[in-house]
Amino acid sequence: MHAVDVARGVPASGMLVELWCLTPERRQLAEGRLGVNGQLDHPSVSGVGITEGSYEALFHLGDYLRAQGGDSPFLEVVPFHFQLGDASQHVHLPMKFTPWGFSLFRGS
């Protein structure tokens, strides 16, 4: 998980993110704040605990934007649902955002 504040041109250091496995039942795999490089430092990022199935990443944009001095952000928590069919493949979840929109995609 990786986030960049493109409006300010910086990594989203300090943003709270969560990773949930949705199958066979919902359970949290990771929660933490992005580091100075905008990436989550957690074993799940290296594939620990990751299996085939459905997942949800939650990016807490509203809290991050308020901490940067923004007023009443348009975006609050941005969910990203995705499916892994081959857990041996590396999946990178980069997000680029402004206070008014975002782009999430599968990186490599």
Mean pLDDT: 89
Helix content: under 10%
Q: Can you list the strand order of the major beta sheet? A: 2-1-7-8
Q: Would you tell me the structural class of the helices and strands?
A: mainly beta
3D shape: elongated
Largest sheet: 4 strands, mixed
Give the number of DSSP strands: 8
Please tell me how large the radius of gyration is: 14 Å
- Strand/helix succession: EEEEEHEEE
- Terminus-to-terminus distance: 11 Å
Structure overview:
There is one protein chain. This protein is mainly beta. It is built from one helix and eight strands, in the order βββββαβββ. The strands form two sheets. Strands 2-1-7-8 form a four-stranded mixed sheet, with no helix packed on it. Strands 4-3-5-6 form a four-stranded antiparallel sheet. A hairpin with a 2-residue loop joins β7 and β8. The termini are close together. 19% of the residues are buried.
Keywords:
mainly beta, 4-stranded mixed sheet, 1 helix, 6% helix, 41% strand
